[in-house]
Write a structure and sequence with these properties.
Helix 5 crosses helix 6. A hairpin with a 7-residue loop joins strand 8 and strand 9. Helices cover 24% and strands 29% of the residues. By secondary structure, it is an alpha/beta fold. The N and C termini lie close together (6 Å). It has one domain: Metallo-beta-lactamase, Chain A.
């Protein structure tokens, strides 16, 4: 069984129940984290998950609402009383992730990795294959190096848009996905140029044949309308607006 927990369903705008981005996937005993925005560690604890068990973190892009709790995590790994991390931590992101990490260490020199190895990997539009799961990535156009991801395991697939624009790569990632966790930042048919709007999300989900659509990353204008109705003008499948803590089993 695969467990998906939407740890953060919102944006950087403070709204109760809609925290910045973070998504936990558990494949048996293997935990994967997609984005680690501020507050993610506290919401991991609320979901009953021990931060010390994290193995692999995938970052969609380097904006703070998707990455800030990486600093908190590294500090926790360096200063948890009575415990020392020995297992490697795998950090995967788009081009520029190595520089991003070095800049974090320059800003926070006291949280540097000491007792364990940090395995840092930069991805482009490619696929990583492991014994029990695989992850594919595609550029999403939100930034020059922003990525969306598609996880495949146990015959199921979960796609994550991250922050995105309407790109062919994103359509391919979402194709026939059992769950598509997709940003829907604005109402209407066209967003501001670096995000998705409701009409685009509905079109994408329909064309890709998504089985279940989970909407995240709604800015206030998207919360002031019946967003699901706008999405359903294009997409007739199962769709819902996520809140922090939404949990799905596949």
């Amino acid at each position: 069984m695969i467990r998906l927990v939407i740890l953060g369903a919102g944006t950087a705008i403070p709204i109760p129940g809609y925290s910045p981005a973070g998504h936990l996937v558990q494949i048996g005993d293997t935990p994967l984290l997609f984005d680690i925005g501020p507050g993610t560690l506290s919401r991991l604890a609320a979901a009953g998950f021990d931060y010390r068990q994290l193995d692999t973190i995938f970052i969609t892009h380097h904006h703070p609402d998707h990455t800030l709790d990486l600093v908190t995590l590294l500090q926790a790994y360096d200063s948890t009383p009575g415990w020392v991390r020995r297992d490697a931590l795998h950090l995967v992101g788009g081009r520029g992730t190595t520089l991003f990490y070095k800049q974090l260490m320059a800003a926070y020199p006291d949280i540097g990795v000491t007792s364990y190895h940090l395995d840092l990997q930069e991805m482009g539009e490619e696929r990583l294959v492991f014994p029990e799961w695989s992850v594919s990535a595609a550029l999403t156009g939100h930034t020059s190096d922003s990525l969306g991801y598609r996880l495949e395991a146990e015959g199921k697939s979960i796609a994550f848009s991250g922050d995105a624009t309407l790109t062919p790569g994103l359509v391919n990632l979402a194709e026939q996905a059992d769950v598509f966790v997709c940003e829907c930042s604005f109402p209407g048919d066209e967003a501001s140029g670096d995000h998705l709007a409701a009409g685009q999300v509905g079109w994408l989900a329909r064309v890709a044949g998504v089985k279940r659509l989970v909407l995240v990353h709604l800015y206030p204008p998207a919360r002031e309308v019946d967003l699901l109705s706008l999405v359903r003008e294009e997409y007739s499948g199962q769709a819902e607006i996520a809140v922090d803590g939404l949990e799905l089993s596949l």
